[in-house]
Amino acid sequence: MPFASVYPLVATRALARPFTYRVENGVRKGSVVAVPLHGARRRGVVVDVGVEAPEGIDPVPVDRVVDEVPAPLVDLALWLADYYGSTPGRALALVAPEKRARRGERPQPGDRDALAGEARPAALSTSQSAAVERIVGALGRSKPALFLLQGATGSGKTEVYLQACEAALARARGAIILVPEIALAPQTVGRLRARFGDRVAVLHSGLTEAERRDERERIRTGSAPIVVGARSAVFAPVPHLGLVCVDEEHDASYKQESDPRYDARTVAAKRAALDGAVVVYGSATPRPESWEHLERLELGARLSGRLPPVRVVDLRREAGYPLSAPLLAELGALVERGGKAILLLNRRGVAPALHCRACGTTLRCPNCDVSLVLHSGGTLRCHHCGFAERSPETCAACGSADVMRLGAGTQRLERELERRMPELERIRLDADAVRRPGAVAAALRRFAAADRAVLVGTQMVAKGHHFGGVSLAAVVDADTGLGMPDFRAEERTFQLVTQLAGRSGRDAPGRVLVQTFQPDALAIAYAARHDVSGFLAVELERRRELGYPPYRHLVRIVAAGPEPDAPVRLLTELRDRLADPGLLGPAPLLRLRGRHRAQLIAKTDRPRAIAARAAELLTGAAAAMRRAGVTAVVDVDPQSV
Ligand SMILES: [Zn+2]
Ligand SMILES: [Zn+2]
C-alpha cells in the first residue's frame, strides 16, 4: 500500500501540518478520508500520494474514503491558506465540508428560491453579442481569462452569463454563478432554471445539511454542471470548470469576515488560473480594482429606454426630513396616477440615536462605543453586539425627560409614510423585516403584484431586483455612508446611489430623487449624472495618490483585549519589529462587545510577506497575549478599514 500525505481538517494551528498515512490503491489527491489522529477520529484531505514515510515512522492506514473533491480544489485551498494567512486545515474544510447521511428524496432547493424566468430573447444587442463572442472565444482556448462586464442596470448582463453558460456546457465544462445573496437573487435563479432546468444546483447558507449534501453530490457527479450560490459556492466541486460569473462584483459580501478571510472574487481568479477557466465579473458600478485591471466588455446603456434623470434634493434648504416636500410631491403623484416607488434608507430601526437635550448625553451600548438604535416597541438595540434594553423615559445621566430622537431609520420612514400617504401599500425590506426564510421572496412578490406601493428598506432594495412599473426611486439619506472613516466610503456611496437610480423606470419614464446634506460630494454628483467612468477616473486618481488598492495592497491587523492599553501596546511592538515603511498606526478603534481594539494598517506591494511575518510574530507572542487576554487577526485585502 502506498503512503499519502494528509492534512487533518482541524482548526488548531499546532496540527497545521500534513501527516503520513497508508492508503489503498486508487486513493488520490482530493480524496477525503477518515483518519485516526492522536486517539481521535478526524476527516482529512489527501494532498499527495506516493510520498516517503518520515524517518523512523511506520504510518497507520486511513480508515476509509468518505468523499472526493476535484484535485485543483486542493491546490486552491493550499494557496488560499497561504495568501490569507490561514491554516491548510481550515482552508481545505471550505472545499471539503462535512457531509451528512442521506435521508430519502427531497425537492431541489432551486424551486423554492426562484422567481419565474424570462424567455430567451430573439436577438442580442450589438454590445451583448460582442461580449458573448469575446467570452466564448476565451472559453475555446481553455486558458485562464478575466473580464469585466460593465453595463447599467437593465443592459442585459444576465443574458450574457446565460449564453456563456451554454457555451461552457457545449464544451462539456461546468459553470459557477456567484451572487451576493441568494435570497436577493430569485430572478437570476429563475432565469437559470428556466434555461437549464435541473442541471442547475443551488448552494447557500439557508439549505439544510441534507439539501446541501444532495446538491453537492449532483454537482460532483456532473449531473448539475451549473451552480448558483453566494460566496462559498466558489468552492463548489464542479468537474472541468470552464466559467465563473461574479454578479454584482462590487458587493462587499464576497469577502468573508472570519478566518479564513478570503475574497471570493480573488479566489475565483485563482481557481480560473488552476482550471484554465474564464471569469466574468459583472456590475453596473464596478470596483476601481476591476476597472483598472480587467479587460472591459462594456454593454453601455439599458436595452429599453434611457436612464432616468436624477434630482438632487438639498436638505440644507428643504425641511421635512425624512420626507421632504419634493419627495412628498412625487409620492402624491403615485397616489393619483398609480405606480410604485422604492425608498432607500440605509439604517434600520426607528431612530439611530437618542440624545438628552438637557445634558448632551447620547445613549450608548455598555459593551460597544456606538449609540443604541431605537426600534419599534420602545426597545433600544446595539447593532454590533445585540445588546437590548427598554428605552428609558428619562435620561439616565441627569433625569431630564427631554430625550430627543436623532435621525431616522426604516421603521420611522415606514411610519411616516403610513401617516402622510396612507393610500400607498408599504412593504419593508431590511434585516429585521425578513428574518424568516422565504420572507424576502414573499416581500418581493407582494411588491411585484401591487399596484400602488412603496418598497422601503436598507441597501437590500438597491440590489439586482427588476420590477416593472417602478416610476420613482429615492435615496432618503445619501449621507449615511459618506461619514464612515473608510477609504471606500465614496465608492460605496456612489455604488448605492447609482444602483438605486437604475431601479427606476425599467418600462416607464422614471424619476429619481436623492436627498442629501452634501450635494457637492463627488460620489453624489457623479451618481446623479450616472457617470460611472467619470467617477472611477477621479476615484482611481485619489487612490493612486494615497497608495490605496488597486495600486497597493492593504494588510490590516486588529488587536482586541479587555484593557484599553494592551492592544495598542501589542501593535506598537509589532510595528517596530515589522519595520516596514508602509505601516500606519496603531490607531485605536471603537470598543466592541466589551473589547478595546486597535488596528495597524500596512500599505504594501507584498501582502503575503507582511501577513506571514506578522502571523509569525504573533505566534511568538501567543503566551503573553493569552495571559493578557489579547487576541489579534491579520486580514489581507480587507474590505473596510
Ligand atoms: Zn441628560
Ligand atoms: Zn454593543
Describe the secondary structure blueprint for this structure.
Elements: E1 3-8, E2 19-22, E3 31-37, E4 40-49, E5 64-68, H1 71-83, H2 88-95, H3 126-141, E6 145-151, H4 157-170, E7 174-178, H5 186-196, E8 200-203, H6 209-220, E9 226-229, E10 241-246, H7 264-275, E11 278-283, H8 288-293, E12 295-300, E13 310-314, H9 325-337, E14 339-344, E15 353-356, E16 373-375, E17 379-381, E18 388-390, E19 403-406, H10 410-420, E20 425-429, H11 439-449, E21 452-457, E22 470-475, H12 489-501, E23 511-516, H13 522-528, H14 532-546, E24 553-561, H15 565-578, E25 583-592, E26 595-604, H16 607-620, H17 622-628, E27 631-636
Parallel strand pairs: 6-11, 6-12, 7-9, 7-10, 8-9, 10-11, 13-23, 14-21, 14-22, 20-21, 22-23
Antiparallel strand pairs: 1-2, 1-4, 3-4, 3-5, 15-19, 16-17, 17-18, 24-26, 24-27, 25-26
Helix pairs in contact: 1-2, 1-7, 3-4, 12-13
Bound molecules: zinc ion (2 copies).
Overview of the structural elements:
With 641 residues, this protein is of the alpha/beta class. Helix content is 31%, strand content 24%. It contains 17 helices and 27 strands. The strands form six sheets. It has a seven-stranded parallel β-sheet, sandwiched between helices. Strands 13-23-22-14-21-20 form a six-stranded parallel β-sheet, sandwiched between helices. Strands 2-1-4-3-5 form a five-stranded antiparallel β-sheet. Strand 17 (379-381) and strand 18 (388-390) form a beta hairpin. The protein is globular. The chain starts with a strand and ends in a 5-residue tail after the last strand. The structure holds zinc ion (2 copies). One zinc ion (ZN) is lined by residues 365, 367-368, 382, 384-385, 387.
